[in-house]
Amino acid sequence: MAKRLVIVESPAKARTLEGFLGSRYAVKASVGHVRDLPKSRLGVDVEKDFVPKYTVPKEKKKVVDDLKKAAEKAVEVYLATDPDREGEAISWHLVQAMGLDQASKAIRRVVFHEITKEAVTQAFSKPRQIDMSLVNAQQARRIIDRLVGYQLSPLLWKKVRGRLSAGRVQSVAVRLVVEREREILAFVPQEYWTIEAEVATKGSKVQGPGPEKGSKAKGQGSRKNGANDVASFRATLVSRWGQKEKLEIADEAQAHALVGDLKKASYAVDSVRQKSSQRQPSPPFITSTLQQEAYRRLGFSAKRTMAVAQQLYEGLPLGSEGTVGLITYMRTDSTNVAASALEETRNFIKEKYGESYVPSSPRRFGKKSPGAQEAHEAIRPTSVKREPERVKGSLTSDQNRLYALIWRRMVASQMASASMETTTVDVRASGAPSGVDYLLRASCTSVIFQGFLAVYAMDREDEEKDCQPLPALKKGEGLDLLGLFPDQHFTQPPPRYSEATLVKTLEEKGIGRPSTYAPILSTIQDREYVQQVEKRLQPTELGFLVNDLLVEHFPDVVDVGFTAQMEGELDRIAQGKREWVPLLREFYGPFAITLEKANREMQTVKPPEEVTDEVCDLCGKPMVIKHGRFGRFLACSGYPECRRTRSIMVKTGVACPRCGGDLVEKRSKQGRRFYGCSRYPVCDFALPQRPVAQICSACGGLMVAAGARQARCTSCGSREVMGDGGAGKQEVREKVTAAT
User: What is the per-residue pLDDT across 335-357, written as a single tens digit (0 to 9) for each?
Assistant: First the structure.
């Protein structure tokens, strides 16, 4: 009996669908794209309306042949690729690559945003045709990116050096990082001072100085002096009494003069105010906010976040429940949530936390961005009944941590607001020798009702918001001065971007789309335009150089506004409101003229060589860092007279267990990272995991990293929490050399 063929992208997704669809369906995976523009040439006919010349890569020919044979035997073909533009384009490419005749063969497109039996069954009951507007939007993006990348990159090879690349979106991201770095370099710190006064209720017997600054949340609390409990708190100098302008304290001399005046003043409570407020939960995750929070809370890169989210989406075995997708589709810019999911979440909250934690009506959130597709859903658990603790045993550490984050965010988004109460005390300092009275202020915010904070603290500080309340005070009550604490500060430059804040900026400026954020971040670091320094993105010298050349000669291509406008035009194509070929004409005409001009006028520049402390063992000249086909290496500065080269390796700070040499980070010819002895080939010890400077407490063997906080023994296999004695710390980044 002929079956119905279902084609998806990944084998994991195929296995999950097989469990839902039964024996009448055969599910096969295309393993990603099966057709694309050729790697070796432009592949776009710019003279004939930008006709793309798609090819099936050599490694995909067998996959296409197998799918074609399966399709010939099937009565129907269902294309169940991902529910976005790229997924739509993959479905169209499958039809073209397999040579399917849509007139003679029933070809259906099915779309679902979660891989659960209910969602899949519903999708197969309502198949549709391939949406060519979505396909054309993806084609337009791919062709524009190819026109830019395959014509700008050779220009950089000729004018700067080989292995460089430029891209329509990646170059804008580099520009943002470079411009932020220049803001930091140009920043001039300004000195300023603050003064805090520690005061206590009048008549308390006080012995000795007050507590150290910051010993309590916001400086408030109680301290003991002998047999007396003194309710003390810190108040900050705000202004001269009666003046609205904040008192600016510019230098130490001014601060000390004010301290001298305040020492001899009398203190009294001028007012006590209490203000109630509510904090609202954030929407469930979209792609950009998931990447930001996973970086901030879990330390995941955008690439790692999306890889783990893909696993959660495609499905994992959950014991007797079988294989099931745990989250909805993770490439989305919509905060919309299905009505059934809202109802299930509200019922769960009521049962678990009580009636008071459920708002009167479901929370619905507006679009995150103008181009957000409301047919899509936010990233949420496919069922909130699968609590993180319940599925923890079936998931890896990374899967569990990310799933718990998504689960908590979704549940919190449908919970009641948190009720807060802020107490503010104004203190008047009067009778100072200068004749000037001063206003000092203290405040404390407490959580009265947790609401959604019971599940998801929006900020790291939320756990500390419920600070120790200020003492019971009343207007006119006298206060004793316990101490004055002047403190010097300097204004700070804008912070460097982290992966999270760069994604946030790209989203806010309309650059890129959910599927592009992670590849952008990976590309600009792989090309060595940007490097991570203490988890912050910093441009390299090469990044500065390439960015400046592109800004000078291609101002439109790397312009933030132009790039965002292009995204808007691609959205219009996807919505069927614009044709794609005219957009390509409008873009390429001016771009071709600019490209021709840059070929004539761009000066050839040489990237600055990074001189090292290493010395050539043949001629004694300094070694410099150069870039080659396989990345960075050390070369003699006496080239071409001396052609000595060495590889660059990174010490781990751990000794080789076989010979006592240094274990160093290495790269295979395929680019994979591994760790081996620096004395190779004398000693060939190697291992794939990063060694840590912690000795196994059970057998004394070598330990390797096994997650963020665990180490595993290579001898006996026991696991331990990483200790402090060097274990778990980042390996020492020290250059060592080995003759090649």
Answer: 999 999 999 999 999 999 999 99
Q: What is the pLDDT of residues 589-637, one digit of tens each?
A: 999 999 999 999 999 998 777 788 888 989 999 999 887 666 678 899 9
Phi, psi of 377 (to 5 degrees): -115, 165
Residue 436 makes CB contacts below 8 A (sequence gap 6+) with: 240, 241, 261
- Residues of 453-480 as b/e, b for ≥16 C-beta within 10 angstroms? bbbbbbeeeeeebbbeebbebeeebebb
Alpha-carbon distance of 322 to 15, in angstroms, equals 11
25 among known catalytic residues: no
Count of C-beta atoms within a 10 Å radius of residue 14: 21
> Alpha carbon 658 to chain centroid distance?
40
Backbone angles phi, psi at 31, to 5 degrees: 55, 60
Whether residue 381 is preceded by a cis peptide bond, meaning omega within 30 degrees of 0, is no
Return d(Cα 416, Cα 276) in angstroms, integer: 15
Tokens of 296: 């901030």
- pTM for this model (two decimals): 0.81
Mind listing the pLDDT tens digit for each residue in 100-136?
A: 877 667 999 999 999 999 999 999 999 999 999 999 9
Catalytic residue among 295, 313, 329, 529: 329
The reported pLDDT for the residue numbered 21 is 93
The C-alpha atoms of residue 718 and residue 183 are separated, in whole angstroms, by 49
d(CA 271, CA 518): 52
- Helix/strand/coil percentages in the chain, nearest 5: 35, 25, 40
- DSSP lists the bridge partners of residue 674 as 666
Model pLDDT, residue 628: 67
Which pair of structure tokens corresponds to residue 681? 């080939």
Rounded CA separation 84/98 (Å): 21
Long-range contacts made by residues 587-595, C-beta under 8 angstroms, separation at least 24?
A: 587/144, 587/147, 588/46, 588/50, 588/147, 590/556, 591/147, 591/148, 591/556, 591/557, 592/46, 594/553, 594/554, 594/556, 594/557, 595/151, 595/152, 595/155, 595/554
Please tell me the predicted confidence (pLDDT) of residue 367: 59
End-to-end CA distance of the chain: 62
What pLDDT score was predicted for residue 226? Answer: 37
> Which of 288, 238, 48, 175 lies closest to 559, judged by CA?
175
Both tokens of residue 442? 């203290």
CA distance 357 to 345: 12
